Amino acid sequence: xxxxxxxxxxxxxxxxxYADIRIQKTRRETIYLVDLSLxxxxxxxxxxxxxxxxxxxAWGFAHxxxxxxxxxxxxxxxxxxxxxxxxxxxKGKGLxxxxxxxxxxxxxxxxxxxxxxxxxxEKVDLMLEVNKTMLNYAKIKRAFFMLxxxxxxxxxxxxxxxxxxxxxxxxxxMITATAVKEKDSQxxxxxxxxxxxxxxHILKMNLIDKASQIAEEAIMKLEADEPGEIRRRDLxxxxxxxxxxxxxxxxxxxxxxxxxxxxxDMAGVSFAxxxxxxxxxxxxxxxxxxxxxxxxxxxxxxxxxxxxxxGQKWYIIKDGILNEYGSTRDSRPFLDDGMSRGCSxxxxxxxxxxxxIPNLYLEPGKKKLSPQELISDTEDGIYIEGRGSFSIDQHxxxxxxxxxxxxxxxxxxxVRPLKDVLYKSNNPEFWNSCDAICDERYxxxxxxxxxxxxxxxxxxxxxxxxxxxxxxxxxxxxxx
Amino acid sequence: MIxxxxxxxxxxxxxxxxxxxxxxxxxxxxxxxRYAQNxxxxxxxxxxxxxxxxxxxxxxxxxxxxxxxxxxxLKKMIETAQNIAKLNKPDPEYVPSAxxxxxxxxxxxxxxxxxxxxxxxxxxxxxxxxxxxxKKAFISGLVTKKINDFYMKTKxxxxxxxxxxxxxxxxxxxxxxxxETKVERSVKDIKDYSVKKEIELLNSQFDALTTPKKIEAGKxxxxxxxxxxxxxxxxLLYFFDRKTADYGIxxxxxxxxxxxxxxNFTLLTKLDEKGLTAGPFSGDGVAAKNIEWIKNGVxxxxxxxxxxxxxxxxxxxxxSNIIIRGGKATEEEMMKxxxxxxxxxxxxxxxxxxxxxNEITGxxxxxxxxxxxxxxxxxxNNLRFNQIIHEATKNILLLGKEENMSSNVKVPxxxxxxxxxxDTTTF
Lengths: 480, 427
Ligand SMILES: [Zn+2]
Prior knowledge:
heterodimer, A: alpha+beta, PmbA/TldD fold, seven-stranded mixed β-sheet, 24 strands, B: alpha+beta, six-stranded antiparallel β-sheet, five-stranded mixed beta barrel, 10 helices, globular
């Protein structure tokens, strides 16, 4: 008998009300080039399976990397033992699962060139050229290039009858130039995050041009002024910056497990509690956030989640109002009798699936508007590109964000670059201050590959996106 | 040493044909019981392996990593690493693998912890849940047990083995209003973990909290409890490497031998410190040694890997354990030393604001109290700090007794004046 039937049959014979097995082979090629030194050129493979059982309202989970029927049975038995122990400490009936059915299906990321078949020399040659371009500037003292290529080949089967195969890829290049002078050092990065595609995506990126641009901007930052005292002015934020802002201030607070208090000891809880659903004004009327695990290039897209729930698209914030959470089969029943939104994901085979942010993006504005027009329409503001320092409280209310490149705007013009800019705001002030969003022509994605959450910590992936948008009257200035 | 490690090591040595190589084999046996809102929400167990091989042909390098000790997988790993190296470009900063080195004897593993079962872990959860229910509160956290084995060998004769054990519990207790506080600790020997003492500490923090009064941003005297001290100063170690300093990127540029920090600040690694474990060697093949990184405010050393050490002709080193030296002051004495101030249990979401300035930001968490004339008055809302790390060390007025926070970290309570809070928060 195959491992899958062995696992599921054995789990049921030992009293599991539900069981699933996730067989996962993760391949990851990473290359780090620091200046012209190849610090790490490696290929990493992790292959194994995790078995999850639900018994008497409690989860048990065990994993192994040994593919024999005996070992599979042993792993089921330890998962059952763990569930039996867990069931001793539960409230009421304990955990239940939102309704779902079985699926027999397959999903693959659309790729044209398999990144793992591209010759190493082609990758390293590109990286060396990029770093040399940055180091050609005398003030650039460090050039950094990270290339992260990823493939997850996964088979999921459950006692609901699901048999789902997924084959997921992403590519992620990130480059940073650091300029140094006596009293200061400043960095500038080109970092769109990861993108679910093949090597063809890297070829489209013009990384050499980007390298010159970020080297010049890092040097520009070195000579730029600080923004001075904190005071209220308008912010214009580009998509590459907004990705992280929405991740922290909208993505995490609308994870149902946080709302339920399941992350209270580590990542924290959420201010966006259930009585606020369909009522709470999270943002202005033009603010619409969509959870979308069907997005073809999205890092959270896998056809199905690790509960075997299909990828979906739904409003998390609709016309500014908190609409719905991202949920999993075990979290949703604590809210109502609805179905899961398919946000259950584990990172590696040995990880327990947890409630994750889906691909989440801000809908573009409906009226025609370009970033240039938005700047022209702004009297006193700062334009921010890219991600910088970011910090938010454990209820996801108060936050402080930096950025990677800053321009002062006076009377409709970008007048000078700035450095070390921070803005401070909170929920619901920030998204309610949003008074203009550029149209769909300017929409850009931003892929997060390192979202840390859970105990033990797992790093998950998801894609965000936005068009450049304006936020009126936000506290912004230097660090003091 | 574990027999399966020896077998795998022999296989790699026999089959690796590169000019130079270095490999490690790692095994981790982990059990994790996670609880939230007074019930267990996840519970897992399993053994994980990692084998990593780095090879070089001349100064062309390659690396491969797998999670299996099976010969067919090891074979693929060797081929992959060798193919990468053969096809790679030369690394101008390449250094040969570590040579035979005398490795200090350390004692990082406890039999008691090895023998602990998931039942023992669930009993910890039971005790803390019962306590939370008595308090009409909700508790969430994680109990972990880990046994790690690490073996490393190089073509040039380095060989090292280390076993370590850890048992820990991290827990946050909250009520439906605004009380929320956390206690976390991990130890080498489960016998040194007293759930009773930890619950007492948790309850004392919880009971001390009252409805928070509004407080504005500004400079305040702070009593940082050990968890806050640990999280704050951990960020110092993020920019603590010699190369980044020498390149002018970090605040440590040109500071070795200078009074960069306050005279009350001493940070060291000490292999035979009572009650602490110490990693005997680094993954780079450097043997651990005692180092006073910062002594009475003077920066003596920064971390230096073998590659950069060879370039500047210095001794390589690494941080094997962390001790921030304390003193004898009690919290009562600290409260009397200044007119008023804040007691901070913990910090959260700390990030770098400026590398060159050594400035970081973060928020208070897990309860913050205002004291005046030697007495705690009431709780206050959380605050955001933007603070230059070394400036804070110059403002240390008193040091409390050192406390073991995890098996290899020991830090004291600190009284620091004029800590810079840049923003208030809404709760
Ligand atoms: Zn995240």
